Amino acid sequence: MKRAFITGITGQDGSYLAELLLAKDYEVWGLIRRSASFNTGRIEHLYQDPHENPRLRLVYGDLTDGSNLSSLINEIQPDEVYNLAAQSHVRVSFDMPIYTVNSDALGTLRLLEAVRTCKCRPKFYQASSSEMYGKVLETPQTEKTPFYPRSPYACAKVYSYWQTINHREAYGLFACNGVLFNHESPRRGETFVTRKITRAATRIKLGLQEKLYLGNLDAKRDWGFAGDYVEAMWLMLQQDQPDDYVVATGETHSVREFLDEVFGHLDLDWGWHVEIDPRYFRPSEVDLLLGDASKARRMLGWEPRVTFCQLARMMTEADLKRAQREQLGRQSESMGA
Ligand code: NDP
Ligand code: GDR
Fold first, then answer.
1. What separation in Å is there between the alpha carbon of 282 and the centre of ligand 2?
2. Atom 22, ligand 1: residue with shortest CA distance
3. Strands 3-7, 123-129: parallel, antiparallel or unpaired by DSSP?
4. How far apart are CA 121 and CA 258, in angstroms?
5. Is residue 5 within a helix (H) or strand (E), and if so which, with residue range?
6. ipTM for this prediction
7. Which residues partner with 244 through β-bridges?
């Protein structure tokens, strides 16, 4: 049985990757942070009683604590390490640049060092990002497109990208970068624009909310489905040689088009509900992302299955169910009062 260690297992991608690896009969170890309230909602359906010899185990740690990462890697002796943990919100990285760099850049180095010094020498996956391309130098963006990061988050990810390659070249580690373009799902964090839109639109539909405040509606992104993208992560670590790959759909759409799709599906006109709040603008923006995943298609046999429209609908339907439950909850509360 193969053993994987996932940082960021409580996040969107961590939950889908854990599902995928458990289905492939892996033993999965996930790093979680101590939190005052539950932070394991996305993996609750996978978790079993720790007394029943489960294949999913959770251990406490943090990317800012290198000695803890080293002891965990030594203790667990994983075959594969997936570094998905990060302060992943680009806008927030302008508010918390030092923390973001500590976890997203130095955190990767701490984990790489833990992997390098462990006798088991696990394979390593780094969650690199299309944000590294930043200012548009060419489209579509490929593995050869130069980086021009436009936020503390993106700068930290560029550092981690190169440090991963340096550990591969200097120490012979099997270390890969997946340069993943935006990927979404019903499990996407509520403050990322797609989920913010599907959550608000469905609540507006049911009369639970009136307005939705957004920032730049002209930004264009290459949006795919997270469930498809975690397969690419796994495939990268199953190859004979470590390498770096772009993972994308090859289509780009604006925030405006996402609004059209979601509000249209609910028979609503977003023009009546959306207002612009400058607080959501970024000090420097990434205007256009469009990826070319030909290498991943050719070398990994990977391709995206879910289209832009299917993704928007999947997220809208899931949030509509949540909004209906919220509405029922409110009704039964007011009946009880
Ligand atoms: P999420 O924000 O949903 O999840 C981030 C995870 O990292 C959470 O489990 C979080 O824990 C954990 N985390 C944050 N800081 C630390 C820390 N200091 N130590 C340990 N754990 C920490 O992100 P996604 O699942 O969307 O993304 C996964 C990775 O892929 C991230 O590295 C992201 O930057 C990168 N990426 C994402 C893309 C996307 O479109 N989703 C595209 C390209 C790259 P907690 O639950 O406790 O907050
Ligand atoms: P992004 O995703 O920055 O691309 O990073 P996000 O959904 O936050 O923003 C996408 C675009 O939408 C514009 N936008 C808004 N964004 C947010 N969050 N809230 C708003 O109200 C809003 N209004 C407009 C943004 O300006 C931006 O142009 C995501 C994260 O998952 C990163 O971790 C990952 O690396 C990249 O995708 C690829």
1. 10
2. 85
3. unpaired
4. 43
5. strand 3-7
6. 0.99
7. 177
